[in-house]
Automatic annotation (TrEMBL):
Subunit structure: Homodimer.
Cofactor note: Binds 1 Mg(2+) or Mn(2+) ion per subunit.
Lineage, broadest ranks: Bacteria, Pseudomonadati, Aquificota, Aquificia, Aquificales
Cofactor dependency: Mg(2+); Mn(2+)
Origin species: Venenivibrio stagnispumantis
Descriptive protein name: 3-isopropylmalate dehydrogenase
Designated gene of the protein: leuB
Length: 357
């Protein structure tokens, strides 16, 4: 089994450096416990890279990512860069990483912790026991389809994008969905709009073909509008949701909101060779530098890295269990604090989790 891993560390902007440092402290503990070593190398991305070299994704950063076993990412963006041209903004660096590394699958778990049921906007009897994964195709669809643009036709402006999927793109995300489901509760919900869109009709057809190799996994198809409703009505019924880029963008945020705080939600973006781990929340520039950000989503993203890249699922479970115990003990950062719980800062939350490791 591989014992040494080179990790590209991209703290980014806002609270990114604080939450990344918290995750690195946890990984240091794990490395000692499991006898593995990490070589962490930091690089610029997003607004920090724009300020330093005028590019949200410098070539040196991309080169480091391609030479590493995995990328651990903080957050990018902030009001400081909001007025830049679209192709020069911090978020463009993130999109380019996904494309350059061919990170075709975004894996976003959404788990309702018993200790945080009060934080959910839904009733406890609906949210209790929710444990699902949204698998979003990440390199196709309208975000990358051509032709695209804004032009003048018949004396008025028209904007257009192309929704497009190739068969091989659908096959590889469908296979991954069935593989993930086999390690969970053996159910896949494929989400599309096949009653209206030809691209969705192909999506459904190809998913059905791939399912022939995974007959042991239950497959259901659901229109995206119905899925959005059922996620609110009966979220416990979902296990693995697989869908395209634009539908996945919306559905994954909805699934994340069920749990009550974006500060709790990790994600992984993986390709055939590279893997990229990040919390789903933003850079929160309003609290940057105050030491009060919730590090849990980033720490859980590091746990996903241990499982998927390092092939150490037991280490990932260690971190997940430590997080659960800390929440049960009442520790809360500001975003998840409620009356009667212990309000702590980023460092105190990190130390509490490490204590249980």
């Amino acid at each position: 089994m591989k014992k040494h891993f080179k990790i590209a560390v991209l703290p980014g902007d806002g609270i990114g450096p604080e939450i990344i440092d918290a995750a690195l402290k946890v990984l240091d503990v794990i490395s000692k416990k499991y006898g593995i070593t990490f070589e962490f190398e930091k690089a610029l991305v997003g607004g920090a890279a724009i300020d330093a070299v005028g590019d949200p994704l410098p070539e040196e950063t991309l080169k480091l990512c391609k030479e590493s076993d995995a990328v651990l990412f903080g957050a990018v963006g902030g009001e400081k860069w909001d007025n830049l041209p679209t192709d020069k903004r911090p978020e463009k660096g993130l999109l380019r990483i996904r494309k350059e590394l061919n990170l075709f699958a975004n894996i976003r778990p959404a788990k309702a912790y018993d200790a945080l049921l009060d934080a959910s906007p839904l009733k406890q009897e609906i949210i209790k026991g929710v444990n699902l994964v949204v698998l979003r195709e990440l390199t196709g669809d309208v975000y990358f389809g051509e032709p695209r643009g804004i032009e003048e036709r018949n004396n008025e402006r028209v904007g257009y994008n192309t929704m497009i999927y190739y068969e091989h793109e659908i096959k590889r995300i469908a296979r991954l969905a069935f593989e993930i489901a086999r390690g969970r509760r053996n159910k896949v919900t494929s989400v599309d709009k096949a009653n209206v869109l030809e691209v969705s009709a192909l999506w459904r057809e190809v998913v059905n073909e791939v399912h022939n190799d995974y007959a042991d996994v239950e497959l259901e198809h659901m229109y995206v509008d119905n899925c959005a409703m059922q996620l609110i009505r009966r979220p416990r019924d979902f296990d693995v949701i697989v869908t395209g880029n634009i539908f996945g963008d919306i559905i994954s945020d909805e699934a994340g909101a069920l749990t009550g705080s974006l500060g709790m939600l990790p994600s992984a973006s993986i390709g055939e060779r590279y893997a990229f781990y990040e919390p789903i929340h933003g850079s929160a520039p309003d609290i940057a530098g105050k030491g009060i950000a919730n590090p849990i989503a980033t720490i859980l993203s590091a746990a996903m890295m241990l499982e998927l890249t390092c092939k150490l699922p037991e280490a990932a479970r260690d971190i997940e269990n430590a997080v659960e115990k800390v929440l049960e003990e009442g520790y809360r950062t500001a975003d998840i604090w409620s009356v009667g719980t212990k309000r702590v800062n980023t460092q105190e939350m990190t130390e509490a989790i490490i204590k249980h490791l």
